[in-house]
Amino acid sequence: MKHLVKKAGLEKNFYIDSAATSTEEIGNGPHYGTRTKLAQEGIPCGDHRARQLVYADGIDYDLIIGMDQENLYYMNRILGPGAAPKIHLLLEWAGLKRDIADPWYTRNFDQTYQDIDLGCRALLAALK
User: Fold this and answer.
1) Rounded distance, CA 123 to CA 121, Å?
2) What is the CATH number of the domain that holds 71?
3) In a 3-state reduction of DSSP, which class is residue 52?
4) How many CB atoms lie within 10 A of CB 3?
5) Which region holds residue 2: left if phi is over 0, alpha if psi is between -120 and 50, else beta?
6) How far is CA 44 from CA 29, 36, 63, in A?
7) Angle 14-17-20 (CA atoms, 0-180°, nearest 5)?
8) Residues of the domain holding 7
9) Which residues of 108-126 are buried (b: 16+ CB within 10 A; e: fewer)?
């Protein structure tokens, strides 16, 4: 999403962050498969490190986007009922009612990239 926003020249209009709904990867960088796929697509990955989603994120952010139903479940638990209107599945923005394919289980980083790219492009179009 950051890459698309930057390409559109809209960086000053967005603050984009990422947070985990579980604790397994806190402090870790992106998976090597993710880094490889992003490099193939010419998208910089930077030095992002996983952090835990916290209650204040539900107050501080206008939208909170999850990749799958499990994400939504934990987002709602962590953020509380006041944040519920802000929480969405990414592919909702593309008119789809399904989860992003999780490459941790599928090992299909191409499909995951395609899903996320589709959702991010639709989200950006909706926000313009």
Assistant:
1) 5
2) 3.40.50.2300
3) strand
4) 16
5) alpha
6) 13, 10, 23
7) 155
8) 2-127
9) ebeebbebbbbbbebbbee
State the DSSP H helix or E strand holding residue 3, giving kind and residue range, or none if neither. helix 2-7
Q: How confident is the model over 64-88, as pLDDT tens digits?
A: 999 999 999 999 999 999 999 999 9
Cα atoms in the Cβ-side hemisphere of radius 13 Å centred on 82: 9
Number of domains the chain is built from: 1
User: Which residues, including other chains, have CB under 8 Å from residue 81's CB and lie 6 or more apart?
Assistant: none
* Owner of token pair 């090992």: 107
Confidence of residue 106 (pLDDT cuts 50, 70, 90): confident
Give the residues across from 89 on adjacent strands: 66
pTM for this structure? 0.91
**Tokens representing residue 119 in the block:** 């959702």
- Helices and strands, counts by H and E, the chain: 6, 2
Residue identified by tokens 């709904």 is 21
- Residues 6 or more apart whose CB falls under 8 angstroms from that of 42 comprise none
